[in-house]
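Quick one:
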Amino acid sequence: MLNTAVLVLNKHYQPIHVTSVKRAFSLLYQGVARAIDAQYRLYDFDDWTALAVAYPDDCIWTVSRSIKVPRVLVLTAFEKLPRTRVRFSRINIYARDEDTCQYCGRQLRRSDLNLDHVVPRSQGGRTCWENVVCSCIECNLEKGGRTPEQAGMKLRREPARPRWTPLFRNAARPQTYREWLPFLSLTDASYWNVELKDD
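Output:
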């Protein structure tokens, strides 16, 4: 339970990160963040721990009390906007391709996958989002230094730069929770941060 996921929002209710319950409790206890409930009310650590009596499910039990697991936290001072570019890295390519060979369609462990240049470097192919895909070892050997067309192979989908979301950072743990849904797009999050005008 301590390693399950919690969505972290900046103070403008924009999703910026996914963290563990253990880290979320630390942020809440230190006063760096507040927990948010289904009615969008904010709670500090003491008020949040008092809720466990009313909601016995999804709680962590200690020697002296139970504490409800917060699924969404709002940081009290952090204003930074989420990073909008996904870093070009091996783990992010695997996440984009869902650990699936882009030629045969088999989903494999990451240790059984490698990266393939769609247009080989020997033919002028670049090392970029639009030219690198996950490939199983067998398909990579079969393709060799050829393009998919030259090798008589077909890509499952064209490679592209993925859009950033806080869930993309959580690619190793793709679990989401119902409480996250109102905050997963910046459009939905901005609903809570729009300045209201006095008529």
